[in-house]
Automatic annotation (TrEMBL):
One of its GO terms (molecular function) is molybdenum ion binding. This is MOSC domain-containing protein. Residues 18-168 form the MOSC domain. It comes from Actinoallomurus bryophytorum. InterPro entries: MoCF_Sase_C, MOSC_domain, Pyrv_Knase-like_insert_dom_sf.
Amino acid sequence: MDGTVTAVSSNGEYSFTKPNHGAITLLAGLGVEGDVHAGVTVKHRSRVAQDPTQPNLRQVHLIHEELFAEVGEAGFEVTAGQLGENITTRGIDLLGLPTGTLLRIGDDAVLEVTGLRNPCRQIDGFQSGLLKQVVGRDEAGNLVRKAGIMSVVIEGGVVRPGDTIKAELPDGPHRPLERV
């Protein structure tokens, strides 16, 4: 299960969207260098308010570019970085990966998948009605989150558009992704 990086994004200030860059540097145990969400402990405001000592399981946010086409069919225009992701991908089923999957990106970087992004109302602030497109229910009525996955940096390195992504699944039994 391989894919490709199509864009990289970061922002040193709290903002829903993140501007695209030619490269980002991942720092082991921290996240994206210079990004507001980098750190050993949680940086998302709502989680800091609950308990600022929680480990940061959301150091790097990845989202699949295929989602942009899907929401485009419903009349929404979304491009890389606009949903706050750090790495935009193509060709890899991010949502189908189990917890603990290692993602080898480019020459050096290794991420460990920690769970699903839990989309919030800020998405509707970006484009009204978009939240319903990235959160839904399956045939059995189970909640389905489509706004990407979260990860921690195991090995740092520079990541650029065009880099390959190689997924290494953990030993079984596999645990499905849950929100983090």
